[in-house]
Amino acid sequence: MVQGEIASRQNHSGNNVVFQVSGLTKVYRMGEFEVHALRGVDMELYAGELVVLLGPSGSGKSTLLNILGGLDTASGGQVSYLGISLTQAGDRELTEYRRAHVGFVFQFYNLIPSLTARENVAVVTEIAKDPMTPEEALALVGLTERLDHFPAQLSGGEQQRVAIARAISKNPKVLLCDEPTGALDSGTGIVVLEALDKVNRELGTATVIITHNVDIAGMADRVINLSDGRISQVTVNTEKKSPQDLHW
Amino acid sequence: MKVLNRKVLRDLRHMRGQVLAIAIVITSGMAAFVMFIGAMESLTLTRDRFYREYAFADVFASLKRAPESLRGRIAEIPGVSVVETRVVAPVKLDIAGFPEPVTAQMISIPEHGTPLLNRLYIRSGRMPDPARDEETVVSETFANAHGFKPGDKIGAIINGRKKDLVITGVGLSPEFVLIMRAEALSPDFKRFGILWMGRKALGKSYNMDGAFNDVVMAVQPGADTGRILTEMDEILARYGGLGSYARKDQISNRMLSEEFRMLRRSAEIYPTIFILVAAFLLNVVISRTVSTQREQIAALKAFGYDNLAIGIHYAKLVILIVLLGLAGGAVLGIWLEQRMGQLYMEVYRFPSMLLRINPLTLLAATAISVLSALMGTLHAVWRAARETPAEAMRPEPPAKYSVSFIERIGVGRWLSQPSRIILRNVERKPVRTFLSILGIAVACATMLTSGFFSDAVNYLVQVQFRLAQKEDMKVAFVEPTSRRVVYDLAGLAGVHQVEGFRQVPVRFRFGHRSYKTVIDGVEPDGRLHRLLDDKARPVAVPPSGILLGDYLGELLGVKPGDTITVEVLEGNRAVYQVPVAAMAKQFIGTTGTMDLTALNRLLKEGDSVSGAYLVADSNSWEDLYRQFIRMPRVSGITMRTNEIRNFYDIQAKSMLFFTFVATLMACSIAVGVVYNSARIALSERSRELSSLRVLGYTRGEVSYILLGELGLLVLTAIPLGFLIGYSLCVLIAWALASDLFRIPMVVDPPTYSMAAAVVLASAVVSALIVRRKLDRLDLVEVLKTRE
Ligand SMILES: Nc1ncnc2c1ncn2[C@@H]1O[C@H](COP(=O)(O)OP(=O)(O)OP(=O)(O)O)[C@@H](O)[C@H]1O
Ligand SMILES: [Mg+2]
């Protein structure tokens, strides 16, 4: 069982590498055409780190994130999580991996419209091993007042914060966010980023944030630039900004 | 409660209109099933109990006359456990205040009291005192029809003399659950009854002292009934045996079995249609739900819900809808079953009706429905489960459209843009379009089958009573009489026309097949009683050879030109080889017909008749039966008008009930399919339609796109429904055909119109509901949400 294996490695691993990616490729086949979304990506992600993934549209950001999160499978190369290979895992193992270790935040929130904020979080806490309560998770993103609102009764920023609460409620090791502020104005975006930053700091969750917004890169420990399926540049921020200090 | 379960409930509430529409279809199917199966099970249970507790006989035989001493020989047949000899005689009754011919069958009850077999259940009063020769028990339907109570008197004409009988009780017998005169179309409770009387009294009146003319037996379990029948026939041959028969050929039991067969067939045909329609509707609705919830599925998967959990989640939705429908169906079905039980109890008489349905049957129906529904939605649920999360995150690519066929062949030039949209839509999902059309067509077909029954009955009456049997009354004689009697009858006041007929009980044999029935000898150029071909044209009776009913021909595997063996079951009991001259269409009964002269020649018993058909002035009818009733040689009189009226009376109630149920069902399918198609179309295309509204299209124009498509489906479905309906009627007619009757294959134009009208009305109602939703479409809301 991957679960147990991961748990035991966690204790023994001396270095604190969460993800180890090498030579990762992803090819989409559409009939006769092949789209090379990733053409050999090498990278690591460390425990407690906040990484911002930048790059033009179509450069493969979402593809990379989806593979890291076990939502998609690679065409070639290696991805390991805490020393366990994800590239060799089957659907059952990947499901197990997502259930226990990963939190996702999507650009379009992907909340379940028929469930309230609290219930949307409960969807995750119900199946997690050692989750917080939905109320605790929503409190972390400052939504104590909106527990019983349906998504349609929440603003975009509030919905995204519910999505973050949902993602962090199970105390995941990693938090993967695909354009979490893409649909939000700058003020609301900052509130959402604050929530992510807080979780990263307080829970030590390794976090990857995809964005088109170069300004957001300021809050990262490291900024990875992707272009045309390859990593073109990695910048380490010596001076990490707090989200309140970001402007766009 | 798990939040996902909460989601199931909220999803159900969100699509309540569609859930309701589908549930109603399932309700109809389940109701039909429970009604038919329930009625069948209840009747079976009731019948079996009555048969068991009142010792229904296993073997029956009639003969001319045999001494009581023969009883011992019959009892010695291996396998026979109980033998009871009886005297059975036809009797004419004279009922005060009812000046119409009434006949009855008198059956003896043993001197020691209760019969050993076919015991009587006394509903009121008491058994007759064997020492008194005027006491009698009358059958319940007959007593009710005339309002007789114990203590009332009726006049019986025995050997031309009137005798007053005193009713001591009203009774039922397992032998007469259904009381019907031989050859009648339907039971006539007013004009035919059963009277039970002491053996001695009856024996004296009919010259059967120390003798019997009827015998019933019970056989030991596992005994070879076929062999017993053969031995019986051998023993009784010398005594004018008319052929013994087993319980399965006993008329009352036989009619009951036919009824059960009909119920079982109906329980198979109708619910199957419904569950298939429901499965299709569920498929469409769940597919749609899954595609609108792709992103929710993706999110759930991203958070670690596995394929099974997602699959189960959507399966729950399906199961709940099905269970909702089934629950309603069980309730409605039990109610309908009770109505139907009451309807049956008017014709079929049991001491009491046990209304019961086996829980296992309900469970099986539930399991089958749930499984079919899951099968129908398997693809959609599977798709939901299999969706890779990354894939599901992406919005569905725009649907692929192409220029429609109609446009390609050049008609497109004249089409407006909205009409083009309609056509391209219909073509884009050919399978779903086809299934929607099929679904609506099935509704139309169901309606057609309900109308078919009354059309068939009308046609039957038309053909049978206006073209084939044109006599006013039929007079039957106690035994074959010289043909000269025809002239005597013709001389009676008011009589216009008389034609004699001869009826002989026979057994036909061809190859290894045989069938026991009668040959009717008729006057070849007769006008009163004719045979018809399948176009209802008279068939000439050939001067020699025999004319067979088409169904009899099929049973025996005979075609014109073949020669069949005819064993005469009375008189000289001769065996002849007779050529089959032709076939005639026969809806009721299965008999052979010959030229009267040829038949008499064959029987070598001179020019005789067993009865006559009469046409007379309607003012003189009453006088005529007064005279006939006094004639010792006349055993009974039947009136054609009574037969028609009675047939309708009996049929009308059940027909009305059946039409009501079928209409309800057809409407539920029509509404279910049309409403769902419209609702799905609305959900799939609300963005597109809102965009058009934003561009300045009016509500009417936008509705046209949606409802025009619906109209197109409905209009295509109706002719297809006619076709399917007709085929279904053919199937039903075929499945219900038996040697007792065949249903004529006729569907009248009004039935087609009615079916179309019901479907159109259901479509219009559904369209109005959807139109209202369309009018309330919130443009901003729709365009804002991402799909
Ligand atoms: N399912 C798919 N089938 C075919 N091609 C795909 C599929 N998914 C992604 N691609 C292609 O792979 C490439 C990388 O896509 P990806 O979604 O990773 O880009 P991205 O960097 O996230 O872009 P954006 O910033 O626009 O979200 C693109 O060229 C895209 O068209
Ligand atoms: Mg992307």
Can you describe what's shown?
The complex is a heterodimer of chains A (248) and B (787). Chain A has 248 residues and is α/β, with parallel strands linked by helices. Chain A has a domain at 47-73 and 102-245: Rossmann fold, CATH 3.40.50.300. Chain A has helices spanning 2-12, 61-68, 91-101, 117-125, 134-140, 156-168, 186-203; strands spanning 17-30, 33-46, 50-54, 76-81, 84-85, 102-105, 174-178, 206-210, 222-227, 230-236. Residues 1-14 of chain A have low confidence and may be disordered. Chain B is an alpha+beta fold and 787 residues long. Among the domains of chain B are: 57-254, no CATH class; 395-428, no CATH class; 430-470 and 640-787, no CATH class; 495-616, no CATH class. Helices cover 53% and strands 20% of the residues of chain B. Chain B has 22 helices and 22 strands. In chain B, the strands form four sheets. In chain B, strands 3-4-9-6-8-7 form a six-stranded mixed β-barrel. A six-stranded mixed barrel of chain B has the order 13-14-20-17-19-18. At the A-B interface, helix 2, helix 3, strand 6 and helix 4 of A face helix 1, helix 8 and helix 11 of B. Magnesium ion is lined by residues 61-62, 178 of chain A.
Question: What labels describe this entry?
Answer:
heterodimer; A: 248 residues; Rossmann fold; six-stranded mixed sheet; four-stranded antiparallel sheet; 27% strand; B: 787 residues; alpha+beta; six-stranded mixed β-barrel; 22 helices; 53% helix; binds adenosine-5'-triphosphate; binds magnesium ion
